[in-house]
């Protein structure tokens, strides 16, 4: 049975030059769609991607990532912006990896483009007024 899940991968400094994603495809037969990536030599890296494959291959691929020291976090959250609580401070816009939260310079307001949101939840803890929440 094929499954598809969005994941956030955190790469330790020592893995920046390793073919980790390539191995997910060749050794574990997983397809991937990179949604966001920031990998810099000798720094911690971040990648948000969708992994697609057979359930057994998926499990083995995730185990492989963890064995190499890559942090794995699954995305399943649906984020909501409470307009009544939002003061449009812009704190969330700096952390959003997909620009789903953007500061509109004309209106001086934070806009939430929900279709761009991947549910990484990075914005939730940085909002000082708790205007961004995980929908349950």
Question: In words, what does this structure look like?
Answer:
- This protein is α+β, with helices and mostly antiparallel strands and 136 residues long.
- The chain has a 4-stranded antiparallel β-sheet with strand order 2-3-1-4. The protein has a two-stranded antiparallel sheet with strand order 5-8. Strands 6-7 form a two-stranded antiparallel sheet.
- It has 2 domains: 2-75, Alpha-Beta Plaits, CATH 3.30.70; 78-135, 2-Layer Sandwich (Alpha-Beta Plaits), CATH 3.30.70.
- The radius of gyration is 17 Å and the shape is elongated.
- The chain has 3 helices and 8 strands.
- It has helices spanning 20-26, 55-67, 123-126; strands at residues 2-11, 31-38, 45-54, 71-75, 78-81, 101-104, 109-112, 132-135.
Total count of helical runs of at least 4 residues: 3
**Total domains, how many?**
2
Structural class comes to alpha+beta
Please state roughly what percent of the residues sit in beta strands, choosing from under 5%, 5-15%, 15-25%, 25-35%, 35-45% or over 45%: 35-45%
Distance between the termini: 27 Å
For the secondary structure, the number of strands is 8
**Which CATH class of the largest domain applies here?**
Alpha Beta
Instruction: Describe the largest sheet.
Output: 4 strands, antiparallel
Outline, from the CA principal axes?
elongated
């Amino acid at each position: 049975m094929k499954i598809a899940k969005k994941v956030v991968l955190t790469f330790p400094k020592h893995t920046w030059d390793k073919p980790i994603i390539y191995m997910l495809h060749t050794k574990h037969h997983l397809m991937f769609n990179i949604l966001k990536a920031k990998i810099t030599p000798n720094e911690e890296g971040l990648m948000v991607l969708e992994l697609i494959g057979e359930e057994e291959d998926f499990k083995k691929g995730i185990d492989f990532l963890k064995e190499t020291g890559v942090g794995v976090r699954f995305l399943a959250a649906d984020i909501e912006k409470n307009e009544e609580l939002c003061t449009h401070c812009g704190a969330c816009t700096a952390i959003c990896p997909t620009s789903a939260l953007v500061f509109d310079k004309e209106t001086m307001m934070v806009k939430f483009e929900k279709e761009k949101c991947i549910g990484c939840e990075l914005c939730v803890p940085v909002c000082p007024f708790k205007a961004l929440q995980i929908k349950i």
